[in-house]
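INFO worker-7 received task bundle
INFO bundle size: 2
INFO processing item 0
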Amino acid sequence: MDRESLSLLPPGKISTQIASGKVEEDQNISTTALLSFSTDSSSSPISSKASTKTIIFVSLILTTCIALSAAVAFAFLFFSASHSSSSSSSSPQDFEVSRPLNKLKKPVVLLISSDGFRFGYQFKTNTPNIHRLINNGTEAELGLIPVFPTLTFPNHYSIVTGLYPAYHGIVNNYFTDPKTGEFFSMRSHEPKWWLGEPLWETVANHGLKAATYFWPGSEVLKGFWNCPANYCMQYDGSVPFEDRVDTILSYFDLPSDDMPVFMTLYFEDPDHQGHKVGPDDPEITEAVARIDKLIGRLVDGLEKRGVFEDVSIIMVGDHGMVGTCDKKLIFLDDLASWIEIPKEWVQSYSPLLAIRPPSGISSKDVVAKMNEGLLSDKVGNGNRLKVYLKEELPGRLHYSNSDRIPPIIGLIEEGFKVEQTKLRKQECGGAHGYDNAIFSMRTIFIAHGPQFARGRKVPSFENIQIYNLVTTILNIQGAPNNGSSSFPKTIILPSH
């Protein structure tokens, strides 16, 4: 809004003409008043007094008018400034409301994951399709914050449950249950491992249809979710990405009652390349360009069906990526002078060091001796690793309330790795799994659809908030989780 200008005009000249007679040259008359005037000594006293009163009266009127004019001007300027300040602090989207559906009869959410898509990759090359979603949608301006540990399975399952790993049970990509001695791997589909309620289960529990084209945990049968044929794809990394996109598009050709209201789509890239060559190699640039083309293929297909503006597309990654190399290594064998850490104790080396000593060995003593050695300046890169009892980890990590988490956890600095011995051949590459406060671990959040403002930037947030965001868009009641029930209001537009 343009600010109107206000001009304050000075009062008009007022001439007071006083009849004057002859003034004797040797007579000096000095008069002090609000206005200068000349007086004639020959005037009568009554006339002189009347003139003086008149001038004083006029002067008072002028002073009052000037004061009132100034007051009005000040009030106008104050109001204009306040209105301008209010306007500048309120972004356009504060006045937007969600857009009505044109073709679909009910809200549909498509959740897309590009594994290992580090925040900033979208600027590595020309990504017109991803930026179309950004420019016409809502983006976490400095990226999406993963949960700790910043690994694939824990984060993908946190995104769809709204739970930290300690509560949904997938505390690492690989781990051992201390109670049963059973080993979890990424091929474990027994419901006992997968706690919480993922979005596809929530949708099915409400009598609605969901479809998953790969997502960790989607093949697990829980609640009313039975991984139905044609709606739930068994993981096969060899399936071309284009086929995955086309299958998702085919769901929009179904009758309304058969169309899933929630869908997932998963790509392994650019995580695959990141581990081999790190985040700065040309292979990453090529992988990002390919992901962008896939987004273009998806958008084109939705537009041809007339539903692109109706679908809520949420594109995320699970974690970032950082380069690692030979010189950034810490070897547990170098701690032998203080304490021996047999490989049988170690459940995970890097970038999350996880140690479970056998019963009878004090975890507290192990931590004390390890830290003593690491701080001695006699262990290579020892100051890059700090070991904790899990209950003494920083609370912001939310990584203690599960028996599946080993009692000893080591936090490794960005880009460094822990290994058992120096005999292993070393190579440069990329890794993730570090403290989620490290910026290189951040990924992307891009959302486009009728309930997302166009061109809006929002502050970074943890991925556990996405569960409540999706259930709010779908207008269904979600399961209890670690996210905030009020968070969706900060991201999506109010209804009409």
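INFO item 0 finished
INFO processing item 1
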Amino acid sequence: MKHFLLLSFLFIFNINFAQEAKIKKEKWHWNNGPKQDTVIGYAQVLKVDNVLYISGAVTTELTPAGITAVYNDLKASLASYGATFANVVKENLYTTDIETMKKYNNVRKKFYNGDFPAATWVQVVQLYMPTAKLEVELVAHLPK
């Protein structure tokens, strides 16, 4: 009888205090189309609680115009949930030419208006899109 009571208690405790197995994910993808790309297998923006995880935006031109295009795409991703660059807390930047990216860093900095996030910059041999020279991904927090 003791074992039955103990097992019953553990079962009820587990049901009442176990964490939810699934997290709530909201997704946004370009042009108000499907919420995710099923060919490659990603969503452009994934929102969990008050955090936005933004997939990389890319350019084939490591020029001021190309860098501006990347950050304008990221701006659209942020705006999909009412956020701006002021909400960004982490930036990961991948480039095939770190020295050129350093040279044009002023283009990137304008989007942050002096409120810079934690950032990691990495030079890589190749990005997913073989002709891409820059890919930037973001993590942003929305107010609770």
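INFO item 1 finished
INFO post-check item 1: The beta strands are 25-28, 45-48, 51-59, 88-95, 118-123, 134-141.
INFO post-check item 1: The mean pLDDT is 87.
INFO worker-7 idle
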